[in-house]
């Protein structure tokens, strides 16, 4: 069973790595050909929507115990990204050409073309040390850039949300609107992000400096 799950995880992570690499390639080709940062969504938005939706499997992997990461943090990350991407960027055309979309998508792609190959090669037990180092280091700079981009886009979407009364039917049975919900998400976002960011640093210490962690426990 362990061998079957490793084969499955290798296949899943390889598909995701290939997909995110294509998305990054499309975004950069569009940027270099047009010299514009306004085409982030047009160049790769639908592909990124598909890849992000498929990432729900990662929550299931943790919930079913296929991977040891659990499901809480994967669910938080998947839920935040998917809401931002499908409910806001994909549906609100007014924000799709913002430079922040380009910046956010490039940040996401850069993280994922490191993360998924790391997971895929780890399934084979043959992950090079430089990739391990990148996996647990690149997020220090790239992750904040992506989160700032997400928050800026959500903020920019607020006037459109209230003007169009977006998702009014879905929120008719609750005592607040989608506009209020997005404002609440914006307020909570930095705190949730900080929790995840610190968790990644904890992972970094345990993966890159396992001996020092053992030494601390002995003391």
UniProtKB/TrEMBL annotation:
Record bears the keyword Transmembrane helix: yes
Membrane-spanning ranges: 6-29, 98-121, 133-156, 176-201
GO BP terms, alphabetized: fatty acid elongation; sphingolipid biosynthetic process; very long-chain fatty acid biosynthetic process
Catalytic activity of the protein: a very-long-chain (3R)-3-hydroxyacyl-CoA = a very-long-chain (2E)-enoyl-CoA + H2O
Keywords: Endoplasmic reticulum, Fatty acid biosynthesis, Fatty acid metabolism, Lipid biosynthesis, Lipid metabolism, Lyase, Membrane, Transmembrane, Transmembrane helix
Single Gene Ontology MF annotation: very-long-chain (3R)-3-hydroxyacyl-CoA dehydratase activity
Enzyme Commission number(s) from the entry: 4.2.1.134
Subcellular location per the Swiss-Prot or TrEMBL entry: Endoplasmic reticulum membrane; Membrane
This protein's pathway: Lipid metabolism; fatty acid biosynthesis
Cellular component, GO annotation: endoplasmic reticulum membrane
Superkingdom to which the source organism belongs: Eukaryota
Alphabetical list of PANTHER family matching this protein: VERY-LONG-CHAIN (3R)-3-HYDROXYACYL-COA DEHYDRATASE (PTHR11035:SF35)
Family, similarity comment: Belongs to the very long-chain fatty acids dehydratase HACD family.
Role according to the record: Catalyzes the third of the four reactions of the long-chain fatty acids elongation cycle. This endoplasmic reticulum-bound enzymatic process, allows the addition of two carbons to the chain of long- and very long-chain fatty acids/VLCFAs per cycle. This enzyme catalyzes the dehydration of the 3-hydroxyacyl-CoA intermediate into trans-2,3-enoyl-CoA, within each cycle of fatty acid elongation. Thereby, it participates to the production of VLCFAs of different chain lengths that are involved in multiple biological processes as precursors of membrane lipids and lipid mediators.
Descriptive protein name: Very-long-chain (3R)-3-hydroxyacyl-CoA dehydratase
Organism: Tagetes erecta
């Amino acid at each position: 069973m362990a061998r079957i799950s490793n084969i499955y995880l290798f296949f899943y992570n390889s598909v995701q790595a290939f997909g995110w690499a294509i998305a990054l390639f499309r975004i950069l080709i569009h940027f270099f050909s047009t010299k514009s940062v306004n085409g982030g969504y047009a160049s790769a938005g639908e592909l990124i929507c598909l890849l992000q939706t498929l990432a729900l499997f990662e929550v299931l992997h943790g919930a079913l115990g296929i991977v040891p990461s659990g499901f809480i943090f994967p669910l938080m990350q998947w839920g935040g990204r998917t809401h931002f991407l499908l409910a806001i960027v994909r549906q609100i055309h007014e924000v799709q050409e913002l430079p922040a979309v380009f910046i956010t998508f490039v940040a996401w792609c850069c993280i994922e073309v490191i993360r998924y190959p790391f997971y895929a090669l780890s399934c084979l037990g043959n992950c090079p040390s430089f990739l391990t180092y990148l996996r647990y280091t690149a997020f220090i700079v790239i992750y904040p850039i992506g989160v700032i981009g997400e928050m800026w886009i959500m903020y920019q979407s607020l006037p459109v949300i209230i003007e169009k009364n977006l998702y009014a039917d879905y929120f008719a049975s609750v005592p607040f609107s989608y506009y209020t919900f997005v404002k609440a998400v914006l307020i909570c976002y930095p705190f949730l992000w900080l929790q995840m960011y610190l968790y990644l640093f904890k992972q970094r210490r345990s993966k890159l400096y396992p001996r020092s962690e053992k030494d601390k426990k002995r003391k």
